[in-house]
């Protein structure tokens, strides 16, 4: 069945993860995505294991539900083709720095001239309103700039990056929120608009949801940083044979944990009598929980705590997720036979719609796989398309090695 964005047309001028993953989400929701790539292709086509050149693992996980069109936007014919595509597009998403698109003549003002109803979204490192505007940005630099790396020093002794591209993916979700809100506004008013979604501001907003803390107030009513998250004892707890995630957080959690584990002594301790006092003494709380859990096996604790309201969960490895019984039961993992790449495993869409579920309609495209098809839809003849191929304005898939 078509997804809730069925009929929405998206032009994607992005690479790596942020833009491609955001546009893949729109595609999963039913939108038609035309991924416009330079002749060299999205750089992520080269990263990770691959069965054929240009079809690497990182590209495959971020580019389903798209068609690939190669256009050299530095050539006038490439720019003209993009402007023709923009006439009927609902959304354009790019991750060029604004000055670069302005030099190509493809900034918002140029696109608005051919389609005033378009939702035009630029996503890049830093807002163009500030002094960092021209700086290059990758996930590492944004984790550093936004405070995430130094949060790791506060709990681990040195600045570290999270081993996931949290800046790219958090900003990608912000892009999706922003373009859908603008699309809703356009459907009500007929008015398109330009959106800026900078990574730095997106991640600072993300971090400060809990860590602004005492500096919410002016003058401050305490330090910044949510203490529970900054405890050096906040980690999965070691059992006799593994690890468990256990968080007796609310008052009923705490009393249930103490009763189930035979730690009635903790109930009489004033340091742990309320949620507020436990937060004040969070290192001691985690210490007592850890000391208790070390006395039995993981399976024993799952049985003991499983019938209580205490949040308790196993600690999965990446490999465990492939066979996780809950993910298997919900059909999260799906398998698809790609015409050139063979059998592929793909993560599922994490939300469910009762009437418009969406899902995987197209498998990740080869570079330029749909160039001829899309240009034909614009009204170009085969002869004209052949001329664009010869001039290297566009490109079709290479057959070598397949």
Summary, kept brief:
The chain is of the alpha/beta class and about 400 residues long. It is built from 19 helices and 11 strands.
Can you put this structure into words, describing what you see?
- There is one protein chain.
- This protein is of the alpha/beta class and 402 residues long.
- The chain has 19 helices and eleven strands.
- A six-stranded parallel sheet has the order 3-2-1-4-5-6, with helices on both faces. The protein has a three-stranded antiparallel sheet with strand order 7-8-9, covered by helices on one side. The protein has a two-stranded antiparallel sheet with strand order 10-11.
- The longest helix has 24 residues, at 166-189.
- The protein is elongated, with a radius of gyration of 25 Å.
Topology:
Elements: E1 9-13, H1 18-28, E2 32-37, H2 57-60, E3 66-70, H3 76-87, E4 91-94, H4 98-104, H5 108-114, E5 119-124, H6 139-145, H7 148-156, H8 166-189, E6 193-198, H9 199-211, H10 227-230, E7 237-238, E8 243-246, H11 251-261, H12 264-267, H13 275-280, H14 282-293, H15 298-305, E9 312-314, H16 318-322, H17 325-330, E10 334-338, E11 342-346, H18 371-377, H19 382-390
Parallel strand pairs: 1-2, 1-4, 2-3, 4-5, 5-6
Antiparallel strand pairs: 7-8, 8-9, 10-11
Helix pairs in contact: 1-8, 8-9
